[in-house]
# Entry
Amino acid sequence: MQQQLSDIELITAILEGNTAVYAELVKRHQRYVFTLAMRYAKNREDAEEIAQDTFVKAYRALGTFKQSSKFSTWLFSITYTTAMTFLRKKRLLTDSINDEESGIQLENHISAYQANGHDQRSGYVYLNQAIDQLLPDDAAIITLFYKGEQSLEEIGQALKMEPNTIKVKLHRARTRLKEKLQLLLKDEVKELL
Amino acid sequence: MKTIDEEIWAYIDGSCNPAESQRIAEKIATDDNYAVAFQELSKLNDLMASDELEEPSMSFSRNVMEAVALEIAPKKLSTRVNNNIIYGIAAFFILSLAAIFVYVLANSTYPAQSTFKLPEASFSFNMSEMLSPLSMKIFLMVDLALALLYMDRLLRRKLHANKTTLS
# Structure
């Protein structure tokens, strides 16, 4: 059985001209990048655009990647800047009417979830619903800490913040997440937590 | 002062020292408030840790590879310089300066009365000579060449951006 190449080995191969192996890097990290993009974009279409743009930018800048940090940390920092640029551009195009519409949609969305009974599967639905209601940075920190296998220092590097700020934000995010879950589930929260 | 939640999160994350960890473990065993908070936060922690990642569309990696195919293949930066080379050049200059200094000191004589005079510097220059029609033409040509280079780079970048958006 062929041994799986590390990220660094794949990058070395790409820089030596074997650009086709970039597909392997994309497959390996696409779910992480896409999930992080979802924390900022809040919808799949925009998140997919951010994630795709991230991988194209990473490819262009691959020669500048300093191998002193993890490739995933470097990739997440590109995702963060790409998402920020995307949201800034989108904000310029969005007017207040759209904001009101999205508020109404969110309310309907919540009631649809409340109508369902919840088992183990819906526990994750409620969790993701609560994460979606967090501030984008808070949601991103939770995702990077629990899913991205990143330390506080690495999260700080990716989001361009001090590790101590990340520590405070992580605590705040988890507290808010618990509050959001309590609001969403009311008395039923005891069954989940 | 830390709240109960803060203490419990530090305990769950394993970010507190062994003594503190021991103290919190005892509190969880003896104090009901700590026990309830620990139960809630551990369940929330397990839920977050076991939640699955979002999956992009089936065509995602193909779309990325199609966009990437339009890009110039990345190359390792040739400008990346090994730090040892920089330290080597610095050491060479420092040693050369030190050697010249020692050589000058070893070969200099010290007269009783110094007759050394500082040379007088003259900074007068004719401005009208510098602003001749030829020098102005050269200046404008260089400016024009730089502007064309900048425009070329800007348009190329826009072209690349359009290609990426269209793909």
